[in-house]
Model the fold of this input.
Amino acid sequence: MELGEPDASGRRSPIPVEGKIVTRDIDMAIVAVGVSPNPLVPKSVKGLELGRKNTIAVNEQMQSSIPTIFAGGDIVRGGATVILAMGDGRRAAAAMINMLSK
Done:
């Protein structure tokens, strides 16, 4: 997306950018919205290493003990800010791109 021209109120609305969307087939995506980790997720994946308070343990690339599972935000940090969660997402996305490009 990119910002389009200002409307009558002066606000610029996002518009799609042709050719910038990439679609990938995946087996599962877990979207988490909240203020604390869902206790069912870490406990439902066999072999997933947990951190304190049943959060998911990850490395610097946000990769868990299962190489194809990445995590960030509250499920890794416990209660975290949106800014930290967004940073986690960016680091995880870069690591996923790197892994898929090999």
Summary: Residues 82-101 form the longest helix (20 residues). The CA atoms of residues 35 and 75 lie 9 Å apart. The mean pLDDT is 88. The beta strands are 2-6, 12-15.
